[in-house]
Amino acid sequence: MKYLVTGHQVIPGAGHTDQVNYLRAAKAWVKRHKEAGQLEAVYSFTDGGGVFIMNVSSHEELMKLLLTFPLSPLTQWSVRPMIDFVESADIIINTLKNFA
Length: 100
Description:
By secondary structure, this protein is an alpha+beta fold. The protein has helices at residues 16-35, 59-67, 85-96; strands spanning 2-9, 39-44, 50-55, 75-82.
């Protein structure tokens, strides 16, 4: 299952040293989960926060994974499930063709 996950830090780190440590840990987390195939894409927004495209087997796995992100206790998440465009289009076409 694929998810578009956006997040932004809503609680600041205690100071610059803490923020650097959080970001170093976050970089290692991203690398590890990209290598495992759970993260397909990771980007930061220029004004703070960022976006993941995640590929996991369930909502529960997604929740567990997000809770392990080093900045998670400081982050507000928004999660949107995604479906392949062609599959989505076919579902809509097949549903609506009887009404067209």
